[in-house]
């Protein structure tokens, strides 16, 4: 089976018109890195921003669950919101509060792709390069951002503003190609729009998601994922135009679900909107 | 099927209209995510009605509706609820699988973004039905704004007395937790989800025992997809006769179809089960102008691909299975003639390799080898016997993996070789990007100066 690992000859790259990120990475760097390939935690880092306040919030999270260990995923999100990544000190804090071993926590932290072992920039920019997005333009968007930012996958710009990552399907395929900034949706992206968005972010301008809120920092986003709400739920639209395409067509043509049969139980009057 | 008042009865989908917005009906409303706006449309009336019923009767109602799981497998929802042993002294749990991440699938996220209360109301009714006092919504972490809207909807439900202690004065208590995941497709597999929710690596469990007997914290647990649970309030509110008046013989009700890819107007379409891709494409303006359909998936990348010859297959559980695929999540990803099948399949395979949890050897090692072969094929350096090697690897993964991820990883490959073997043969000598220049597949509106050409 040794022939399987033989790298493609250089002409594979020469004959290629652009956008094929995977094969380029295969030649340059082996292949797309996965969470299995990533380096381990840097245990030489000992400084930490975790305070008694953080520990108290961790205890609050743990108290929400019937069994405390269920709190580990949100607690690790909280660690990232404080530390900008998963740190040895963050792992120790989780282990201590949940009364499990640091190895247990580390095993969990290294399983999930959203947990980062290296410092993440102020804005995490993810471009979907799973099949459909990749083919309709995601590969070009990703390549354009790599060129523009002069960074590779999972790397951060020198100003600490942008971390770029190719991501897997983010459940917005009718809005492809999709880009996520701190896990907010930027739908129907083009290379030009993507570059414009990262330039605005680097310039410190307020950027608003296509389907979401004003973009907060990555650390602030991680805090929401830990279960501590911010006040942005009411920002942004109800839906994308694509999400309501079928609804709009149905209304134009007078189509609707079947009429509701007479109600068997006396119920409080229900206001039915006309369709 | 007997409702004479509906129009356009020329489809196999009973007498219902071609499109039947129910779950999507309020998606165009201003601030539809707010409780007051949801109630204005009749929201939470179904909860009041359910709480007047005996729990067991709610289970029976959902059984009678014929509702089948909308997360891919199509298992009857009410039957799943019926498996919960009511004599088990342990607490019972309801877990909503909101980890939508099957490539192509994009229905639950817009539902929770637009109308989180549809799901929350469904959660409360469903938990009441199985006599659970604790429910979790496990939502993937990569959708920040959806997490916000869910968190807020749950808070609003508590404030309105729909959740928490003594719901609407009935004595029924229910805690609801919105739990954000951390990036792992495998956690959409129900037992991996449970391990993840217990604060562990998200790896699937051996079954039996099934979650209904020993699920979360080894207690009886129901796990349902977002759309399944969101379908419960309308069934309670409008009745089984209404629900079964839509759909086909064994696939009842309406569902959300997600059209994506090289279509003129991609988007979400809620229709009775059994509509065809031809009809949906017709409504969506067809394949993008000047192009033709080449291949498509009926329900995400794990469902074997189909071609233009399958345009008239009714999109219900039975007919798609008869076409040797699966209805899955009704994620209709459409690709036109500019698309390289080899490239597409490689990308899907890279996805499975990336998302394989590593627990079992066929999946962990097999997906890695599949990627190696497909990569050299994309570059036009396929070797003698590679097609057979791909099929042999798939044969050793399918049915031999711990969970369905491994099975799903083989679907794109075996179906693609079945329909487009010549492209895999061409991969012995010609790069995919020469056969199918990639810039032709992008959907950007091109300025006069082309990009990447």
Topology:
The complex is a heterodimer of chains A (275) and B (453).
Chain A: H1 11-14, H2 21-29, H3 52-63, H4 72-83, H5 88-98, H6 102-109, E1 123-128, H7 131-149, E2 155-156, E3 162-167, E4 179-181, E5 184-186, H8 191-202, H9 218-225, H10 245-253
Parallel strand pairs in A: 1-3
Antiparallel strand pairs in A: 1-4, 2-3, 4-5
Helix pairs in contact in A: 3-4, 3-5, 4-5, 4-9, 5-6, 7-8
Chain B: H1 35-40, H2 45-51, H3 55-65, H4 77-82, E1 93-98, H5 108-114, H6 116-129, E2 134-139, H7 144-159, E3 175-180, H8 190-197, H9 211-214, E4 221-225, H10 226-230, H11 232-238, H12 240-244, E5 254-261, E6 267-272, H13 277-283, E7 293-297, E8 306-307, H14 317-322, E9 331-336, H15 341-355, H16 361-378, H17 386-397, H18 404-426, H19 432-435
Parallel strand pairs in B: 1-2, 1-4, 2-3, 5-9
Antiparallel strand pairs in B: 5-6, 7-8, 7-9
Helix pairs in contact in B: 2-6, 2-11, 3-6, 5-6, 5-7, 6-7, 15-16, 15-18, 16-17, 16-18, 17-18
List keywords for this structure.
heterodimer, A: alpha+beta, Arc Repressor Mutant, subunit A, Glutaredoxin, 7% strand, disordered N terminus, disordered C terminus, B: 453 residues, 3 domains, 5-stranded mixed sheet, 11% strand
Description:
- The complex is a heterodimer of chains A (275) and B (453).
- Chain A contains 10 helices and 5 strands.
- By secondary structure, chain A is of the alpha+beta class.
- Among the domains of chain A are: 58 residues, Arc Repressor Mutant, subunit A, CATH 1.10.10; 103 residues, Glutaredoxin (3-Layer(aba) Sandwich).
- In chain A, a hairpin with a 5-residue loop joins strand 2 and strand 3.
- Chain A is globular, with a radius of gyration of 23 Å.
- The termini of chain A are far apart.
- Chain B has 453 residues and is of the alpha/beta class.
- Chain B has 3 domains: 210 residues, NADH-ubiquinone oxidoreductase 51kDa subunit (Rossmann fold, 3-Layer(aba) Sandwich), CATH 3.40.50; 83 residues, Ubiquitin-like (UB roll); 99 residues, de novo design (two linked rop proteins) (Up-down Bundle), CATH 1.20.1440.
- Helix content of chain B is 40%, strand content 11%.
- A 5-stranded mixed beta sheet of chain B has the order 6-5-9-7-8, with helices on one face.
- In chain B, helix 7 links the parallel strand 2 and strand 3.
- Classes of the chains: A alpha+beta (275), B alpha/beta (453).
């Amino acid at each position: 089976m040794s022939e399987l690992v033989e790298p493609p000859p250089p002409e594979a790259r020469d004959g290629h018109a652009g956008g094929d990120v995977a094969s380029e990475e295969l030649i340059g760097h082996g292949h797309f890195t996965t969470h299995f390939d990533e380096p381990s935690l840097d245990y030489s880092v000992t400084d930490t921003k975790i305070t008694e306040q953080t520990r108290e919030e961790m205890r609050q999270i743990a108290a929400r669950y019937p069994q405390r260990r269920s709190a580990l995923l949100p607690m690790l999100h909280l660690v990232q919101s404080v530390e900008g990544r998963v740190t040895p000190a963050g792992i120790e804090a989780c282990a201590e509060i949940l009364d499990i071993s640091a190895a247990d926590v580390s095993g969990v932290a290294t399983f999930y792709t959203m947990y980062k072992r290296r410092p993440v920039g102020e804005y995490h920019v993810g471009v979907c390069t799973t099949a459909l997005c990749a083919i309709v333009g995601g590969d070009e968007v990703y390549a354009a951002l790599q060129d523009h930012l002069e960074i590779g996958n999972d790397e951060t710009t020198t100003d600490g503003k942008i971390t770029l990552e190719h991501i897997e399907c983010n459940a917005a395929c009718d809005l492809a190609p999709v880009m996520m900034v701190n896990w907010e949706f930027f739908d129907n992206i083009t290379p030009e729009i993507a570059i414009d968005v990262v330039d605005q972010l680097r310039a410190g301008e307020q950027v608003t998601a296509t389907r979401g809120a004003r973009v907060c920092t990555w650390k602030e986003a991680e805090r929401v994922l830990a279960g501590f709400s911010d006040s942005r739920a009411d920002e942004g639209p109800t839906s994308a135009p694509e999400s309501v395409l079928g609804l709009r067509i149905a209304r134009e043509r007078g189509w609707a679900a079947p009429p509701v049969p007479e109600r068997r139980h006396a119920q409080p009057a229900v206001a039915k909107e006309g369709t | 099927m007997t409702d004479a008042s509906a129009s356009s009865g020329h489809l196999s989908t009973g007498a219902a209209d071609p499109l039947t917005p129910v779950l999507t009906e309020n998606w165009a409303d201003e601030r539809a995510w707010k409780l007051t706006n949801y109630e204005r449309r009749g929201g939470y009336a179904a909860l009041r009605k359910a709480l007047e019923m005996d729990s067991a009767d709610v289970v029976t109602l959902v059984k009678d509706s014929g509702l089948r799981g909308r997360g891919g497998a199509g298992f009857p929802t009410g039957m799943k609820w019926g498996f919960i042993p009511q004599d088990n002294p342990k607490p019972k749990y309801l877990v909503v699988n909101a980890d939508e991440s099957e490539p192509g699938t994009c229905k639950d996220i817009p539902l929770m973004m637009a109308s989180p209360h549809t799901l929350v109301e469904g959660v409360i009714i469903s938990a009441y039905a199985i006599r659970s006092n604790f429910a979790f919504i496990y939502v993937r972490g990569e959708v920040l704004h959806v997490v916000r809207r869910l968190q807020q909807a749950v808070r609003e439900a508590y404030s309105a007395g729909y959740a928490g202690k003594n719901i609407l004065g009935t004595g029924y208590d229910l805690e609801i937790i919105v739990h954000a995941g951390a990036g792992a497709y495998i956690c959409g597999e129900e037992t991996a989800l449970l391990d993840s929710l217990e604060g562990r690596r998200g790896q699937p469990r051996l079954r039996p025992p099934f979650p209904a007997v020993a699920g979360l914290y080894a207690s009886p647990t129901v796990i349902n997809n977002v759309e399944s649970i969101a379908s419960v309030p309308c069934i309670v509110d409008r009745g089984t006769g209404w629900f079964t008046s839509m759909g086909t013989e064994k696939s009842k009700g309406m569902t959300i179809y997600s059209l994506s890819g090289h279509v003129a107007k991609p988007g979400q379409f809620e229709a009775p089960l059994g509509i065809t891709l031809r009809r949906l494409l017709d409504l969506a303006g067809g394949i993008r102008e000047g192009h033709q359909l080449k291949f498509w998936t009926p329900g995400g990348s794990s469902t074997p691909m189909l071609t233009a010859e399958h345009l008239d297959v009714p999109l219900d559980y039975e007919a798609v299975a008869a076409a040797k695929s699966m209805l899955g999540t009704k994620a209709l990803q459409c690709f036109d003639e500019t698309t390289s099948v080899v490239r597409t399949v490689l990308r899907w395979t890279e996805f499975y390799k990336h998302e394989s949890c590593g627990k079992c050897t066929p999946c962990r090692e097999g997906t890695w080898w599949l990627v190696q072969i497909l990569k050299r094929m994309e570059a036009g350096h396929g070797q003698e016997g590679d097609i057979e090697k791909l099929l042999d690897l798939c044969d050793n993964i399918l049915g031999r993996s711990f969970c369905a991820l491994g099975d799903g990883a083989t679907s794109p490959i075996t179906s693609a070789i079945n329909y487009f073997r010549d492209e895999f043969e061409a991969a012995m000598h010609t790069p995919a990007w020469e056969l199918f220049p990639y810039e032709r597949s992008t959907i950007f509106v091109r300025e006069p100066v082309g990009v990447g050409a």
